[in-house]
Amino acid sequence: MFPFTMLPKRYMDLARLVLIHMLTVSAPLLAGPAHAHPGVDGRNRFVDLVDHPAPEANWDRFYDLEDRLAAGFQAACANEACVPRRFLWPMQLRCSVQAQDGSMAACIWVVAGSDLRVRAAGSIEPDVVVWRCVLPIPPGLGVDAFHAALDVAEPLRVRLPGASASLLQGLRRCLAKPGTAS
After folding, report:
1. Cα–Cα distance, 77 to 60 (Å, whole number)
2. Euclidean distance between CA atoms 152 and 68, whole angstroms
3. Dist CA 144 CA 152 (whole Å)
4. Cβ atoms within 10 Å of 126's Cβ, excluding its own
5. What is the pTM of this model?
6. φ/ψ (deg, to 5) at 104
7. If DSSP codes are grouped into helix, strand and coil, which group holds residue 89?
8. C-alpha of 142 from chain center
9. What is the percent of the chain with per-residue pLDDT over 90, rounded to a whole number?
10. pLDDT classification of 81: cutoffs 50, 70, 90
11. Cα–Cα distance between 59 and 52 in angstroms, integer?
């Protein structure tokens, strides 16, 4: 407990009010919601794949998948020359999951590309482009089926059950379109 007796008398009442406010008003707000999972109470219909079925429950599986997809992306670009011709780098993958039934809703992979050109005057002109690629995820695909299908040596070449294209085909279609200049 705070030693109020050490304060000058004129500050004791103010210190008590601040402490009461912290304990009764601020602390519950800082603690966050009382439920363990953001989708449990129905307010949030979708959750991040990392947080399915509970906060950070899918952490290791998801980031392992993201690393394997990124390695596959780099290998595919090295072997097959990515379109457009520039240095491309997979930045971040995020997937949403329907909280009620555990089915995949969507995955977006942000890919950035850069190209630097030296101008005759000696300056360097950067050309940086970002793509937001929606991966071909079929409706109703469960989280476990998603992970199982992509738990292979070359996950980018996988066509998920019910999908119209492989992940690599989806990425190629996305990268063939103009990205957003940065």
Report:
1. 26
2. 9
3. 14
4. 9
5. 0.71
6. -65, 135
7. strand
8. 18
9. 58
10. low
11. 9
Q: What is the per-residue DSSP string for 95-162?
A: EEEETTTTEEEEEEEEEEEEEEEE-TTS-EEEEEEEEEEEP---TT-BHHHHHHHH-SS-GGG---TT
Task: Write down the residue that tokens 């492989």 correspond to.
Answer: 166
DSSP string across 24-73? IIIHHHHH--SSSSTTTTSS-SEEEGGGSSSTTTTHHHHHHHHHHHHHHH
88: pLDDT strictly greater than 60? yes
The two tokens of residue 181 are 């200049």
Q: Bridge partners of 116?
A: 126
Q: What is the pLDDT of residue 40?
A: 47
Encoding tokens for residue 89? 């780098």
Segment 123-143, tens digit of pLDDT? 998 889 999 999 999 999 999
Give yes or no for a contact between 111 and 89, defined as CB atoms under 8 angstroms apart. Answer: yes
**Residue 174, token pair as written in the block:** 């996305």
Nearest CA-CA partner of 148 in 160, 140, 163, 157: 160
Closest CA to 141 of 173, 108, 101, 169: 101
Domain residue limits, the chain: 1-32, 46-181
Residue type, 2: F
Q: Centre a 10 Å sphere on the Cβ of residue 80 and count the other Cβ atoms it contains.
A: 10
| Cβ burial, residue 92 (10 Å; 0-12/13-18/19+) | exposed
The residue whose two tokens read 């992970």 is 147
